[in-house]
Every structure is written in C-alpha cells, then in structure tokens.
C-alpha cells in the first residue's frame, strides 16, 4: 500500500492534476455567487464541490500512506498541515448554524493553490520572513507619520478642520496622501493659507511613498534570497538510513526488471555491439 501510494504521489501527472482540481473548485465557488446560476445549476455545483472534496480527502490519505508509519514527515510540514486542516474543516455540514462557516472554509480551499505551487510557497515564505524586518520599517514610518501629523495639525487645523482638526484626522489624511489618492487637493487647500505649504506635502510624499516603498522592497528582496537559501539547505539535508534502504530496494527491483527484459531478448539482440 505504501509503495502504491508513493508511486501515485510521485507521478508526474499528480501535482498538475491537483492544481487543476483546485482551480476548478475556485471556479465553482465563484459561480455560486450568481443567484441565477445557483438557482438553475445549484445541484450540479454542489455535486462538483462534493467530488472535489472527495478528491482532496483521497489526496491527503495517499500522502499520509506514502510516508507511513513516519507520520511526522507529513504533519511536520506546515503546508501539509494547512491542507489537512482545510480538508477536515470542509467536512463541516453546509446546513444549519454552521452553513456560513462551511461556505467560508470552502473559499479557503482556493488557498491550497499556494501550498501546491512551489513558486507561490517561496513567495509566502519570503513574506513571513520579512515580517520582523518590516516591523522596524513600520516603526520608522510611524515616527515620521506622527511628526508630520502634529506639524500638520498646528499649521492647518484652523483653515481645514475636516482634515487637520484632530490628531486622528491628521493621521488619516496623511495615510490618504501616502496612497497618492487626492493629495494634490489637500495641498491646494492648505496653500490657500500658506503659499509655502507645498514644501510640507511634497517632502512627506517623497519620504512616505518613494523612500518607504523602496525600503519595503529591499527588505522583501533580502528575505527572498534567504528563503531560497533555506530551500537549498533543505535539499542538501542527508537522507536517513531508512530512506537510503528504500531507495536501494527500488533500485534493486528496477535492475531485476531490466535483467528479465534483457534475458527475454533473442541471443543476437542481447549481445553487445562490441561482442
């Protein structure tokens, strides 16, 4: 059973097939948002979702069987644990008080596309690694926001109380500006009172948008390299004795099969060209 499960899991068609199922499931979930389609084809949509869920359950069982009895090889992997959790949560009945939870969990199945595609896993790992470093960037940006918010309150609160009347309103206005949404209108209103106000706004946009954006990009790129190195280190980890024995056994079986094929050939064909 273990050899059969591993043969299926390691097959070239298995991973593309599961990716196709996840995409198909995502299409079904999207179609369910249309009342017209749901009323006309609701039964088929529910059947499709049930079939996909059944395929996900079979996939989890095959992967577990492929590493049995060393289940830690499966549950010790964060992505496998996420997939298993989504599958188990998908078994919640889609009726009664759990109907909303079941629908939300069904949407989470689309996230399995991230765990299936190695490139997407690398991006997520990079973002997770970047969180501590981004904390320092966010702290620096918060200090700049606070300084500019207090300054903006003292300069513009009397002329434009809707945007600068309180510290909270000033911070919200600065957040709007850092998204480059309507910041020119805010600046022009302030310049009605102070003609030099453009210095305040231009300097904040340059610091808050371009400088900070580049800092975030630099952090992500550095952690992307770290995530790649971590993946390479995992590939370089020495195989266990059990894995080596299993590889040798598969090699022995393959050589025995090749030997039988050679022996079944006619004597003239089995002879080497140099003989």
Helical content (DSSP H or I, runs of 4+): over 70%
Structural class from helices and strands? Answer: mainly alpha
Count of discrete alpha- or pi-helical segments spanning 4 or more residues: 14
Structural domain count: 3
Poorly predicted regions are: none
CATH architecture of the largest domain: Orthogonal Bundle
By CATH, the topology of the largest domain is Helix Hairpins
Computed CA radius of gyration, to the nearest angstrom: 30 Å
CATH structural class of the largest domain: Mainly Alpha
**Major β-sheet annotation:** none
Number of strands: 0
Task: Give the CA-CA distance, first to last residue.
Answer: 43 Å
Estimate the strand proportion.
under 5%
Q: H/E series, N to C?
A: HHHHHHHHHHHHHH
Explain how this protein is built:
The chain has 275 residues and is an all-alpha fold. The chain has 14 helices and no strands. It folds into 3 domains: 2-116, Four Helix Bundle (Hemerythrin (Met), subunit A) (Up-down Bundle), CATH 1.20.120; 121-236, Helix Hairpins, CATH 1.10.287.70; 241-270. α8 (118-156) packs antiparallel against α12 (198-236). The two termini are 43 Å apart.
